[in-house]
Amino acid sequence: MAGLTDEQIGIIVTEVQRKKELQGLSCDFVATAVRDFLRKNSVLEKKLLLKFHVKSAVFEYVVKNVRAELRRSAGLFQVSGDLNEIKELVDNYFAEKIAVKQEKILVSLLESHASTQERLVIYSELYTKLFAITGKPGVVLDLGCGLNPLSLPLMKLKSVSYFAYDIHADQVDLLNAFFDLMQKRMSAFNGKARILDLLDVKVVGGLPKADMALLFKVADVLDKNKGHTKSEAVFRAVPARFVVVSFATKTMSGKRMTAPRRIWMEWMCDRLGWKYTVVEFENEIFYVVEK
Description:
Elements lengths: L5 H11 L10 H14 L1 H9 L6 H18 L8 H13 L3 H12 L3 H6 L3 H12 L4 E5 L8 H4 L4 E7 L2 H17 L3 E7 L5 H5 L4 E7 L2 H5 L5 H9 L2 E9 L14 H10 L2 E6 L3 E7 L1
Parallel strand pairs: 1-2, 1-4, 2-3, 4-5
Antiparallel strand pairs: 5-7, 6-7
Helix pairs in contact: 1-2, 1-4, 2-4, 5-6, 5-10
């Protein structure tokens, strides 16, 4: 029996995205989530094929569960502020000529996303430590980036090509506006943000070759507490000499983890013959892996 048509999948996607917190996601990403859910729940898809109606209990059940899955996988990386206001801050940052005022605007920008806000106190030290291990990169991939590329000024790189990838279409648009302005300021800078589902390993393997790839707090989202096969496949596919993978060191309630180091990560590196260095801060631990 054939599956749902693209039009029917599109109707489900539209209904899923009626929730404000999911509207910024790429439609293609949501469609993939719908198809994955139906593939795992073939009985539900058969019922929809027999009677496809937006008011049916089966349709509503599918929408409800896809929304829940998307909130678990993508909701952690939503911005906390209004994107129009953040875009205005981006414009103000590049328009400001006084360094001290510009730094304050950058702080406000980084405070608009939970992870970048948390890294505010460590960014400068973090990049200093990372580059001491990897050397200053000429090409960077930022995968599952959120708004981390806004920390570019803190990297203090004079020449770099920076490619950022995320599933939130609205954040990708914001980053491209940021990159466009950055390119006008730095002639030796090249930046582009695109939509990408990291689980599409074939596409990941075809990304531009890089000196360094950043995967900050994305491995746990990829694996969803179901082993580490998916994250390892992504790590293998990433076309970069150095892959920097980070993990939270505190639970969602803010308590320090008893064992913040990810032993599975270390075993994986040993098994694959990859060298790694651990850089640890209070809230986040970073594995700098040389493939």
